[in-house]
Specification:
314 residues, Rossmann fold, two-stranded antiparallel sheet, 36% helix, globular
Length: 314
């Protein structure tokens, strides 16, 4: 059963009280888990606009640098609206059939397990959002199959006797990527492919960047309030690394490293655990992200950590 949700109350953003968005009255085990989350007004607005007005033939494409929160905004909006999400990460060599189901042996018989596309379309009566992460890695063949689903709202299931499945109300398609589907012109994402413009025409499109410092402060304060006084400098370090990744500053290029929202949250959460260490900020940053980096990258990051926090911490 459908329910109207107040945008202002549900997402904690500034919106007229009369503005609502559709969702489900009851949750299900396919609804993403709720986590502490700060909704950014502009990004939330765009996802809700798509959800409220798009047809099943209109997808949503969120693209941007790794770790900007593309998948998390989808899952957390879906959580608040009790919408099931069927998620799969795309990889090179993946075929359209990998989105469909297959048979498994169960006792003396065979049982059909539906795939994420069928489930999202409502195979088991619980339609929702199909979320494909890193869709720009896909070979063109898989996307041409999805294009046909967009156009007709129907998918043929060869493994199930060529059954035709028609999308039920509530089916939507969301995709994320690290590029704008026009290929990689940075050298940072060699697995990215150039995609067909006909498919791209089927999407609402939104670039997702890292939040501004005040919003990121609120995010970090939510997950690690005990280090609130350190958060502005943590964000300063993070933004230096991000800008150097983009090569938009005079800083030493730290490519291919960027600092995701997950990295800053892990760093902030780890700091209290290193309170007795000789260099708690550096040791916790190593644990959060630097331990797997190459030595030149570590040196560059430590230099900026020293500039921001002082040499005694590095």
């Amino acid at each position: 059963m459908m329910k109207n949700f107040s945008i202002a109350k549900t997402f904690g953003i500034n919106a007229p009280e009369h503005m609502t968005v559709d969702g489900n009255e009851q949750t299900s085990n396919r609804v993403p888990m709720k986590i502490p989350y700060v909704f950014q007004k502009d990004l939330t607005r765009d996802v809700l606009c798509w959800h409220q007005h798009a047809r099943s033939s209109d997808g949503l494409f969120l693209f941007g640098l790794p770790g900007t929160g593309k998948s998390s905004v989808v899952s957390q909006i879906a959580n608040r609206l009790n919408i099931p999400v069927y998620q799969k990460t795309v990889y090179r060599g993946m075929e359209f059939a990998d989105l469909l189901g297959f048979y498994i042996k169960k006792g003396d018989s065979m049982e059909y397990l539906p795939g994420v596309l069928e489930l999202a379309m409502g195979y088991d009566g619980n339609p929702g959002w199909l979320l494909l992460d890193d869709i720009d890695r896909a070979d063109p063949g898989i996307l041409s199959g999805l294009h046909d689903v967009f156009v007709s709202g129907i998918v043929e299931i060869p493994e199930h006797g060529s059954t035709l499945l028609k999308a039920k109300d509530g089916f939507r398609f969301v995709a994320t990527g690290n590029s704008n589907m026009q290929g990689d012109n940075t050298g940072m994402n060699p697995s990215v492919n150039r995609q067909d413009l006909a498919l791209l025409d089927r999407f609402y499109k939104r670039e997702v960047d890292f939040p501004n410092p005040s919003v990121e402060f609120d995010i970090l304060k939510t997950v690690s309030p005990t280090v609130e006084d350190l958060l502005p400098k943590i964000i300063e370090v993070a933004n230096h690394i991000r800008n150097a990744h983009r090569n938009t500053t005079d800083a030493v290029m730290i490519s291919p490293l960027t600092m995701s929202l997950r990295d800053t949250q892990r760093w902030a959460q780890a700091i209290p655990w290193y309170a007795g260490a000789e260099k708690p900020l550096l040791d916790s940053l190593n644990f959060a992200m630097l331990n797997t980096c190459e030595e030149p990258t570590k040196v560059a990051v430590r230099k900026h950590l020293s500039d921001v926090f002082g040499e005694q911490y590095v």
